[in-house]
Amino acid sequence: MFCPLQKLGAFPCPALSPSDSVPTSVHELRPSDIKIVAAIGDSYTTGRASGGLCPFNMLFNYRGNAWSIGGDNDYDYHTSMPNILREYNGDLYGFSKGVGDCERNFNQAELGARTDFAEQASGLVTKLQADSNVDFDDDWKLITIFLGGNDLCEYCEYNITPAVYTSNLRVGLDILFNNIPRAFVNLVQVMNVGLTQTLRKGFISTFVLSSACPCGTFPESEEANELLAEYTEAYQQAVLDLADSGDYDSDNFTVVAQTFYRNITLPYKV
């Protein structure tokens, strides 16, 4: 099912040793101190259609390819956060591998998921507690949350306002904060789904986008397009506000806003 991978090259950063002792504060973590990785998200995190340039890959979830939680191959062939962390800790655990759900491990993402991720969060708590490879109380965990694209893509149908978006995030974060010790949470800002408007060319792309992102790709008016831009900015600000609120910050747990998708552009040539 995979298209051939090209070798990217060796890891360019110097090796860093673990802390002399297991850190007692999340604010003292080094990459090599992370023992467990997990992720919550939508199709970006299931790795949908990421198996290469072959057309039929659109039908499959390549969870082992997901940038935040995929562990297929190694850094030489695939740049993902787990593959980077494995350069520092070869015993890293929890990353997903392969196609489908058989080796999804702590990849909780589901196709079509929106920011009401309480079920994913609760499921992650249960999995972490039940896995004999996890020292639930003492292992440091890196959890990446990347959601919001589907909320924007459907905002005009379900009126998913920034207030609703923020409330949904809070519910899920509360579950993680109250139930998972020793966790560093990456809360990733949503990207601008309006960029898909540049892709509505040809029958196949139009058909796919009309189903996957109707409100983002086909706004009904200029006013609707302006509202989409307004919601996008507000969603992104909500992530910053939640991370800066202090509500999820202690020695045992923290939430950090990741902003790298904020001004992303599409790679039209690969």
From TrEMBL:
Coiled coil: none annotated. Pfam families: Lipase_GDSL. GO terms for molecular function: phospholipase activity. InterPro entries: GDSL, Phospholipase_B, PLB1, SGNH_hydro_sf. It comes from the Eukaryota. Gene3D superfamilies: SGNH hydrolase (3.40.50.1110). GO terms for biological process: phospholipid metabolic process. This is Phospholipase B1, membrane-associated. The lineage of its organism: Eukaryota, Metazoa, Spiralia, Lophotrochozoa, Mollusca.
